[in-house]
């Protein structure tokens, strides 16, 4: 019986891209992007509300809500949007990193530390499996994160335009 080339992979288990994908998919933070749409938007709303509560005291110190309600709301929205943008960027870059590792024909790995990196060419069946994971699992996640970030950017740009018109 022929031994599969996947079984003789010299890359440590925790550094194999498919295992990095599974770990990311199961992590508390990064699995947000894999949630059903209503749950995903609920998480996004909660982060935005928390961001609003963090930034509204700063906005209130700059623009009193009693005297300038619109400026206070706009500045609080921009601050909350900035915090949400950081969260979305972290999600995007985490998933993008794993996607890149899965797409590559070789795996870069470290045997015992940062000073002795090696590369290992993926066998065709592993490369095919990894690229299917990217196509059917990760690309939709990256698309969702890109669209969400784009909508947030439009909202923040709208707030900025209103701010400039005041």
Automatic annotation (TrEMBL):
The keyword Transmembrane helix applies. Keywords: Membrane, Transmembrane, Transmembrane helix. The chain crosses the membrane at residues 44-63, 69-95. Signal peptide: none annotated. The keyword Acyltransferase does not apply. InterPro entries: CGLD27-like. It comes from the Bacteria. It holds the Pfam family CGLD27-like. This is Ycf36. It comes from Crocosphaera chwakensis CCY0110.
């Amino acid at each position: 019986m022929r031994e599969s080339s996947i079984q003789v992979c010299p890359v440590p288990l925790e550094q194999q891209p498919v295992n990095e994908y599974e770990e990311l998919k199961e992590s508390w933070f990064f699995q947000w992007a894999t949630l059903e749409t209503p749950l995903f938007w609920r998480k996004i709303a909660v982060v935005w509300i928390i961001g609003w509560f963090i930034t509204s005291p700063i906005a209130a110190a700059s623009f009193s809500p009693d005297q300038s309600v619109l400026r206070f709301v706009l500045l609080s929205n921009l601050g909350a949007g900035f915090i949400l943008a950081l969260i979305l960027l972290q999600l995007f870059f985490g998933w993008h990193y794993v996607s890149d590792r899965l797409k590559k024909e070789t795996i870069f790995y470290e045997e015992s530390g940062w000073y002795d990196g090696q590369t290992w060419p993926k066998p065709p069946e592993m490369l095919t499996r990894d690229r299917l994971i990217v196509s059917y699992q990760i690309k939709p996640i990256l698309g969702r994160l890109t669209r969400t970030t784009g909508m947030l950017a439009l909202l923040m740009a709208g707030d900025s335009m209103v701010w400039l018109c005041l």
